[in-house]
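#lab-general

N.A. 3:47 PM
ok so I finally got the sequence cleaned up, no stray characters, all 211 residues accounted for. can someone with queue access submit it? mine expired

B.Y. 3:52 PM
send it over

N.A. 3:53 PM
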Amino acid sequence: MREARFPATFRHPNIPRAVAAFTCEDGQFIVMDFIGGQTAQEWAISHTPSPAGLILAIEGVFDALIHLHSHRPPVIHRDVEPANIIVMADMVSILVDFGLAIVLDESEGDAGPSRGMAAYWSALQQSDWASTDTRSDQYSLAAAIYALITHRVPANSLERALGKGSLPPARSVNPAIPLNVEAALTRALSIRAEDRYPDIATFRHALIGES
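B.Y. 4:20 PM
back already:
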């Protein structure tokens, strides 16, 4: 029921609507908009886009996250990964799966699961509810983009923090990646939240080369 609440709350072209939720003897169900398209990973494999083309294809996810983060209190998705980004035939991208989403306001009650980490896509801060903020979604989106344009999943943030893993510069894996994209991804994938960009909009500007 909590997972259904978030999409039902927001009206945004890059977030699917949840129109109903119910329980029956077969389980719990959410009725949502049908999103016809491919996951970002499937789309990248079938279209082999340039780095700029890939970023353009998932631009709607930036808009969705900016919308969620502008809510008061902010809503953090916490599971931005290639499988949860749908690219439709008209190149509109949709952010799906709000199962780990939380509201950054303990006073609201039922803010969400205190911990929620999605393997290689989650910032270290997601191991602790109190440390999670909008920059956690920035890390996850950057990890998704890194994987999509290098075809290599970035090292787990916990392993990196413990010195058991490292993040190769994106251009060392794919030399076609522009310098500004590599720099933006490196910063957004910083282990410390304070070393990332202040918000998703600033991260997007850095990726596309805007000042």
